[in-house]
Amino acid sequence: MNELNQADKTLHSLAQLIALTGMQWLPILADDSQTNMAWNSKLHRLEGRPFVCKGQQVRLVINTTTFTFYFVDDLEQVLASFLPENRTPVDAAAWWKHQMQTWGISEIRAVNYQLDQDPVDPQTVYKPTGLTEWTTWRTIANTALQQLNGWSGRASEVRIWPHHFDTGIYYSQTDANGQEKAAIWAGYAIADALCNEPYFYLSGYNSMQPIDFASAPALSVGEWRTTSDWNGALLPISASKNAESIAVFFQESYSWLDKQLLNR
Q: Is 96 helix (H, G, I), strand (E, B) or coil?
């Protein structure tokens, strides 16, 4: 578990540069989705959204098999690369900034969020610890959330968000005027104050009336948590016996929460 948590910190740190790349090259959207990224389970890499540079489609990716950070074009040609092992976040940021300057970006636009703390100390070197297990769990998360999309009949991109570094989906419910009135979100989160290991989660809100999460029936897998900071369903990975148990967790928690929203 310590190695998996360390891998999350390492990749969370490097992912900030993918988020920054989106801020420089892509339109700024209301949900900040220009900063998020996908986990490509076939190529074993984190991929930022593509942008156009010098007439070609480019994206910044992190390959977890080779532990390499690089810009690649749409023909999979590597345009610039950085090897993070035994280098620091300061080194990575300097490499990234040099590449931005090479491509004509002189003033860096900051992201629209602030981390509580650096995932990796700026002067601590990166190590490829726990990346194989990290790859396994993010692939499981992708599959589980895609299955929830299909099972629920809703559609949402499965994306990794750079702020909390969770793999997540978001289902919005709107009123007749197109304004959001309720939402359900689900995903896979890194260890935090809520749980000391990575975990699956599902939660939501209704703008008309608070949801009484304390009244939710017990889940076959996982549990409902009600705290001053967070309300929803939670399943630590240590309690995730197999893919079927994760699917049951999402289906049961989603079914109950969706009924609460439909009945309002």
A: helix
Average pLDDT score over residue span 81-104:
98
Listed in sequence order, the residues at least 6 apart from 74 whose beta carbon sits closer than 8 Å to its beta carbon are 50, 56, 57, 58
Confidence of residue 174 (pLDDT cuts 50, 70, 90): confident
Contacts of 115 (CB under 8 A, 6+ apart): 16, 163
pLDDT at 263 over 70: no
Q: Enter the DSSP assignment of 38.
A: E
Between the two ends of the chain, the Cα-to-Cα distance in Å is: 41
Q: CA triplet 1, 247, 249: central angle to 5 degrees?
A: 75
Cα atoms in the 13 Å half-sphere on the side-chain side of 123: 0
In this predicted model, what pLDDT tens digit does every residue of 136-158 receive, in sequence order? 999 999 999 999 999 999 999 99
Type of residue numbered 137: W
